């Protein structure tokens, strides 16, 4: 029997359409607000300068969700890590610009409120926020039985952080800089529409299929997104980092290129360890090109640093960090795999 082939777009998600939509939004907001709010190219967060308030700080804000990963949590009835996913997707996006998290708000929507599940989600949010010093300031819980099917949940998070203008990232990215990849915790919170299509078409029982670690496929897929704040922010405070990319939807290439200046390219060696889960997905009909386009492939965050700072960062982070490439001169800004 011929092996099925899957793409993200065939599962109902188009990265290209989403990028075009974001560009159209930028046209509308730039026309409406001008320079009132700031942005650095294709940045990971929104910027709000406090110059008019006599401060040299910039507020950073991000809004993100967990996506259809909640449907895996629903199928497995496992909710203990989904709140961390929500926190991580937001904290990591302002961390990219050097931001220290200040406060967080959540939006939890469902068909019918189940207090046990809701409290498990909120507890997960709180535990994930604690190491960052960020406060859960409030949120909204909405019951909408006419909009959601029985047992459905949807999650969104909103974060505000701050950074001194002089510490704003990226800055000083240039030829000769080194790329350090920080390991992911698996799939994190992207590509689940594609994963769910594989599960559906192959009739995979996620509670019975086991990984080499001896856990169920459901547990593997529901490993929460890493919150990189505790690992990375100390280096930001020391001024050891020139740029950071959070590797989410769009993969390494689609996210790393967002912070590169003109006239350089990032050259990456694919010699880092690719976790079992990505090999499992690939074995079920996803091409290598599509895998690197959709998933983090084991690298959840990339740091761009001066060569003189590499040893200190690697010593501190140990096995969770590895040099994966470098910045070199180029007529065209791009990401290239060796």
Give a written overview of the molecule.
The chain folds into two domains: 137 residues, 60s Ribosomal Protein L30, Chain: A (2-Layer Sandwich); 160 residues, Alpha-Beta Complex (Phosphoribosyl-aminoimidazole Synthetase, Chain A, domain 2). A six-stranded mixed beta sheet has the order 7-9-6-10-8-11. The chain has a five-stranded mixed beta sheet with strand order 1-2-5-3-4. The mean pLDDT is 92. Helix 3 packs parallel to helix 4. By secondary structure, the protein is an alpha+beta fold.
Keywords for this entry:
338 residues; alpha+beta; 60s Ribosomal Protein L30, Chain: A; Phosphoribosyl-aminoimidazole Synthetase, Chain A, domain 2; five-stranded mixed β-sheet; 11 helices; 32% helix; globular
> What is the H level of CATH, i.e. the homologous superfamily of the largest domain?
PurM-like C-terminal domain
Shape descriptor = globular
Structural domain tally:
2
- The CATH class of the largest domain: Alpha Beta
Strand order of the largest sheet: 7-9-6-10-8-11
CATH fold-level assignment of the largest domain? Phosphoribosyl-aminoimidazole Synthetase, Chain A, domain 2
CATH architecture of the largest domain: Alpha-Beta Complex
